[in-house]
Automatic annotation (TrEMBL):
Function: Catalyzes the ATP-dependent phosphorylation of N-acetyl-L-glutamate.
Record-annotated site: Transition state stabilizer: 9, 226
Species lineage: Bacteria, Pseudomonadati, Bacteroidota, Chitinophagia, Chitinophagales
Subcellular location field: Cytoplasm
Protein name according to UniProt: Acetylglutamate kinase
Species assigned in the record: Chitinophaga arvensicola
Length: 263
């Protein structure tokens, strides 16, 4: 079956680079058919937190989100970044609508239980409880949903959820109705064998190669949640997952893909 829905995630390093963001959004707007954008913005939240005297801490690529931090990320992801992206997409002729996971109750989550680490107001998504109805309705009217990486607990609490996880959860839930290609866009050409060498792209990663790369400690920081989520998607019905450069987003919606294919 042909791919009939593209779910595309764009990370904070792209959003923070005006030239790269501009070219990414132009290309995203040019993708024909149904599509959803999920954005990060971790870098911007860190910078604005710094200005407010609120320090950022990460464990395994996830932000420790205390009471002050959840306010910062709600403002930055749900406000500044989301609305700027929507306005820019509108200027490129893409009829975008900005959402968080709380809107239309699309992404319910639970506050991550405290084990060795207290992540604070970080939400783990209930993939099986996602409400895809409102999204299908928007897609059917030609509107393009743009998600901030925020979820909610149903009791009035906004939660911070890694944007890669939001993207894979939406891709899994929507795979029931569509044939989905999930594309992670960032500022590198793919998963690299040597993170200092931008051209050392690994074209294909299966579970065996993934285990080897983990053992060799080639994967660190933000690439870890990306790959965990990519495999989670593949294992749960998503047809195709790609990790590639933001500039390659348009070609990555065609059969001629660039970057790292996860299988
Ligand atoms: N082997 C690797 N290949 C590519 N990127 C890597 C690798 N190891 C670590 N990284 C780092 O992971 C980062 C991507 O994660 P992150 O900064 O969270 O991106 P995003 O905001 O797009 O999700 C890259 O910018 C890079 O610095
Ligand atoms: C829980 C958690 O870590 N949430 C992320 C959400 C933003 C994000 O994922 O942004 P990037 O895609 O730009 O990294 C954070 O606050 O950093």
């Amino acid at each position: 079956m042909m791919i009939d829905l593209f779910i595309i995630k764009v990370g904070g390093n792209v959003i923070d680079n005006p030239a790269l963001l501009q070219s990414f959004l132009e290309k995203f707007a040019a993708i024909p058919g149904k599509k959803i954008l999920i954005h990060g913005g971790g870098k911007i939240a860190t910078r604005i937190g710094d200005k407010l005297g609120i320090e950022s801490k990460y464990v395994d690529g996830r932000r420790i989100t205390d009471a002050d931090t959840i306010d910062v990320v709600t403002m930055v992801y749900g406000g500044l970044v989301n609305k700027q992206l929507v306005a820019k997409l509108q200027s490129h002729g893409c009829n975008a609508i900005g959402l968080t996971g709380a809107d239309a109750n699309i992404i319910p989550a639970v506050k991550r239980p405290v084990k060795e680490i207290d992540y604070g107001f970080v939400g783990d998504v209930y993939t099986e409880k996602l409400h895809t109805g409102p999204l299908k309705a928007l897609l059917d009217t030609g509107v393009t949903p743009v998600f901030a990486p925020l979820t909610h607990d149903g009791n009035g609490q906004i939660l911070n959820t890694n944007a890669d996880t939001i993207a894979s959860s939406l891709a899994i839930a929507l795979s029931e109705h569509y044939s989905v290609r999930l594309i992670y866009c960032f500022e590198k050409k793919g998963v690299l064998r040597d993170s200092a060498d931008d051209n050392a792209v690994i074209n294909l990663i299966n579970k065996e190669i993934y285990q080897q790369l983990l053992a060799e400690k080639i994967l660190t920081d933000g690439i870890l949640p990306k790959l965990q989520n990519a495999f989670g998607a593949i294992d749960n019905g998503v047809k195709e997952v790609l990790i590639g450069h933001a500039d390659d987003v348009l070609s990555n919606t065609t059969p001629k893909v660039a970057g790292t294919l996860i299988c």
